[in-house]
Amino acid sequence: MQHAQESSAEPPSARRGTEADDQITVSSRTEGPGRFVVEVGGEVDMLTSPRLRAVVLEHLAAEGAELIVLALDGVSFLGTSGLAVLIEVREAAHAAGVELRLACTGRRVLRPLSIAGLVPLFDIHDTVEKALEDT
Questions:
Q1: Which CATH number is 60's domain given?
Q2: Quick one: which of 77, 15, 30 has its CA closest to 52?
Q3: What is the pTM of this model?
Q4: Which one-letter DSSP state was computed for residue 62?
Q5: Is the dihedral of CA 99, 105, 109, 112 positive or negative?
Q6: How far apart are the C-alpha atoms of 47 and 81, rounded to whole Å?
Q7: N or C terminus: which one in the chain shows less Cβ crowding within 10 Å?
Q8: DSSP 119
């Protein structure tokens, strides 16, 4: 019996952290002074949305930040926690005087935004390039 306990898998908390890391990708790049593109892929849910929030808030705090584009076409699932983060970073951007735009054509993102009645709150573009125009 003791041997079985010693050979058991990692504790659930350790597995959960690994799974969350595998479920989302968040990368960012600079597109000129004060302009950032944050590319998001995978699942944005209760476990992964804090990572997205942290990256966006870090860019909002950057000196001279003017525009953040969230590229969301790589998102395969957008849960209510992900919607909450989008609202939170939108409000933080507004308070900081930074423009926030979404670049997305995917149904997996647009449908939850639409169902929740949030589409009018966001400046949504078909491509990152279009979102970067007119600044």
A1: 3.30.750.24
A2: 77
A3: 0.83
A4: S
A5: positive
A6: 9
A7: N
A8: G
pLDDT digits (tens, 9 = 90+) for 96-135: 999 999 999 999 999 999 999 999 999 999 999 999 996 5
- Token look-up 């983060």 returns 85
Give the residue among 90, 109, 117, 115 at the shortest CA–CA distance from 101: 90
Domain tally for the chain? 1
**17: containing domain:** 2-132
Q: How confident is the model over 21-56, as pLDDT tens digits? A: 579 999 999 999 999 999 999 999 999 999 999 999
Tokens of 75: 């998102």
Alpha helices in the chain (DSSP H): 2-6, 12-23, 49-60, 80-96, 107-115, 128-132
